[in-house]
Specification:
CATH superfamily of the largest domain in chain B: Cyclophilin-like
Keywords (chain A): ATP-binding, Hydrolase, Nucleotide-binding
Order of helices and strands of chain B: EEHEEHEHHEEEEEEEEHE
CATH architecture of the largest domain in chain B: Beta Barrel
Strand content of chain B: 25-35%
Pfam families (chain A): CT_A_B
Distance between the termini of chain B: 19 Å
Oligomer: heterodimer
CATH topology of the largest domain in chain B: Cyclophilin
Radius of gyration of chain B: 20 Å
Pfam families (chain B): CT_C_D (PF02682)
EC number (chain B): 3.5.2.9
Shape of chain B: elongated
Protein name (chain A): Biotin-dependent carboxyltransferase family protein
Largest sheet of chain B: 5 strands, mixed
Amino acid sequence: MTEVIKPGFYTTIQDLGRLGYGAHGVPVSGSMDMYSAKFANLLLGNTEEAAVLEITIIGPTLKFLSPTTIAIVGAPMRPKLNGIAINNNQPLALKSNDILSFGPSVNGARCYIAIKGGFNTPLVLGSRSFYEGITEFPKINKGEIIPYLSIDKELAKKNASLKYDETVLTTKFLNVSFGPEYHLLSRSQQDEIWSSQFVVSKFNNRMAYQLENLIDNDAKNIITAPVLPGTVQLTPSGQLIVLMRDAQTTGGYPRILQLTDKSINALSQKTVGNYIKFRRIA
Amino acid sequence: MYYDLSFYRYNERSILISWPEKINENILNDILNFKKTISEKSIKQIVDIIHAYSSILIIYKHTIDNFNDEYFKLKELYMASQSSVVLKKTTWEIPVCYDLEFGVDLKFICNLINLSPYDVIRIHSAPVYTVYFLGFLPGFPYLGGLDSRLFLERKSEPKLNVAKGSVAIGANQTGIYPQDSPGGWHIIGKTPIDLFTPKRKPLTFIDAGDKIRFVPISIKEFYKIDALVKSSDYILKPIQSHD
């Protein structure tokens, strides 16, 4: 089990998300940067479904109460084990009462802790992903005990051929296809979207990223229609909203672009003030 | 009748199917019939189907390699679906307390549209509403059938905390907030009924295609029902199943 000494800024349990409940208005959720979360599980020989801890901007301080093995993948946040610096992207064997802590994020917004066998919080509707109103808590709290399976066996040597692709942290390009309402845009609006550098605003979270730049817009809302993580909406005031993993299932703003799965991962690593640029995929 | 549908590749793993852009019960019925046909086929690759007023989004487990193949399959399924069949649905009576304590925007909108609270309550609780779909939040029903005298543009600034159970008006729609959340609709009352219960089945007793009536209750009745709901002793019974 893990004891939460400090919860960090916004730490949650995530997995592949909750599929099949969209008709009830239930969001998909799941790890924001699915690539890094899956990579962390892969390093430990876990299945993709194993639940991980998602850390945002400021990491938690955790005490592991029994031996286990973990892997830290994603934004480099200066992780330390019992006060000594450790590296991302490799399995780390832990002893009872080891303390894991983090410094501020160097580059990127989110980092994942995978644990051998996965974190073992309750499954709700087929997923452990935290979401307000569905799981008991929306994020982890100080003093909380998070269960995991304890192991006493040494892991097989790590697979040397696994290489973490850092572009998820560094790229500013988001690959997009046209959304169903792209055709409603004027020529100059289209030009603006492809030529501008957009800035991530302070309103960015697991539900959506709002971008700072405003686009001249007098387009009306649409009749409420389905949306997905990665859908880019244009509001009547000209703001772009990129829906993320905890997005609602339906929306009434024109859906002008759609991010690829990979680009949702990349945007998850951005934070306030970061630049992004849209790039059309064939 | 069959509608002229458009098929659109929404992303790597999903296809959007659109009907004419209208809020209309025939379209709703056609959508629900098509959805039922797809679900009954239990196509393994399909992991979720989300619908709204005039479209369906079909989400696949893996990347769709050949969009045209899927398009023809879905089109065939649509032609095979029994669009003329009206699905059997349920009518629910939802108790709502329109007291100013809960209907926090009631005074404001009475001034705006020049009606007394009594009139607003009477007009809002008169129609039988149609549930078009659940969206926005888990269990949030989008209801059509609002009296045009109560059409109100959404607030320009959403309220940060709308209480769970709040009954509200947004443009030509009315709905119920199933949990505390931010929201831009005008709040006129509150129901003690739980709309979304993640630990119980069904998750949402209200289904797309169902009918809803709002029954005004006093604040005393509200707290009585609220206590029963909290101790799980309250079961909302459907009024009727209509064909």
